[in-house]
Design a protein that fits this description.
Elements: H1 7-17, E1 29-30, H2 33-43, E2 50-54, H3 60-68, E3 71-76, H4 82-88, E4 95-99, H5 107-115, E5 120-125, H6 131-140, E6 145-153, H7 154-161, H8 171-179, E7 180-188, E8 193-194, E9 201-208, H9 219-231, H10 237-243, H11 251-260, H12 274-284
Parallel strand pairs: 2-3, 2-5, 3-4, 5-6
Antiparallel strand pairs: 1-8, 6-9, 7-9
Helix pairs in contact: 6-8, 9-10, 9-12, 10-11
Length: about 280
């Protein structure tokens, strides 16, 4: 089977099946073998690994995963890609393709079946519009995870690893950093994709913590506070929390907690660290 890291082979497969790119699924296929090798290295995929791939497309990265991993499960939402995947992955007997929405799949059950409940590695080239729900879904569903290595829009990768006081800092930064240590591996030019997207991408690995770096009594409350603080960026923290339909905490309670933390009543959410949010959640919980 011709490797799909080569643009010519990708074009041939698409022609053979008369495949049309679906805008609604944010489809951009990688056509650079060098980048694909680098993703495998970044994900540290080895012969003992079970890998969950999200959005295999026509199987470009899947081929590389099959060469390196013990077993691969690829979840693809677009049913038009299933016959193509059956073709492009036909040389491999260590891959299963599931035609399903990743957000609806019982991933904990999958990890149990395929990997004896041991932590799994996730590798994906994610469309921009669904990056955050997928990442948060993986973290929040208690799937045993070792790492997530994903290709995302560069700006989203930046957002995942920045700290307080920067314009990209927000709820996603804090959520990712609560669960994992983010590491940007490389920037990938828009020219490495077909069709070519409007922006550059980045490959980022999220190394899952065994336990979060901060201690918090009520995780749900922590994330509600974080969301409330960034829903209205220009507002002070006390107003953001007070306006949140998810919370019933008065401004007075917030101001009192902030005082205990040595912070002014006018502070905004964007200037608090993850540790400070954890302290706030513990004081308000």
């Amino acid at each position: 089977m011709a490797t799909l890291g080569n643009p010519q082979n990708t074009i041939e497969v698409l022609k053979k099946y008369g495949f049309n790119f679906q805008k609604k699924f944010g489809q951009n296929f990688l056509i650079d073998a060098h980048i694909l090798e680098n993703i495998m290295d970044a994900a540290q995929v080895g012969s003992d690994d079970f890998v969950l791939e999200i959005g295999p497309g026509i199987g470009t990265m899947t081929q590389y995963l099959c060469e390196r991993a013990r077993e691969v499960v690829s979840v693809e939402i677009d049913k038009n890609l299933i016959p193509i995947l059956e073709d492009t992955l036909s040389p491999y007997d260590n891959v299963t393709v599931i035609n399903e929405d990743i957000l609806k799949l019982d991933l904990a059950q999958l990890a149990k079946e395929k990997n004896g409940g041991e932590p799994i590695k996730v590798v994906a080239n994610l469309p921009y519009y669904i990056t955050t729900p997928i990442i948060m879904g993986l973290f929040e569903s208690n799937v045993p995870l070792k790492s997530i290595t994903i290709m995302v829009q560069k700006e989203v990768a930046d957002r995942m690893q920045v700290g307080p006081g920067t314009k990209d800092y927000g709820a996603l930064s804090l959520a990712v950093q609560y669960y994992a240590k983010p590491q940007i591996n490389m920037i990938v030019s828009a020219n490495c994709f077909m069709p070519k997207p409007n922006v550059d991408s980045a490959v980022i690995t999220l190394h899952r913590y065994e336990k979060p770096p901060v201690e918090v009594k009520d995780e749900k409350l922590l994330f509600r506070l974080i969301r409330a603080s960034f829903n209205q960026r220009r507002k002070t923290l006390q107003n953001g929390i007070n306006n949140s339909p998810e919370l019933s905490i008065s401004k007075g309670q917030v101001v009192e907690a902030l005082e205990k933390m040595g912070l002014p009543a006018t502070v905004r959410g964007e200037s608090l660290t993850l540790e400070q949010f954890a302290t706030l959640a513990n004081l308000l919980g």
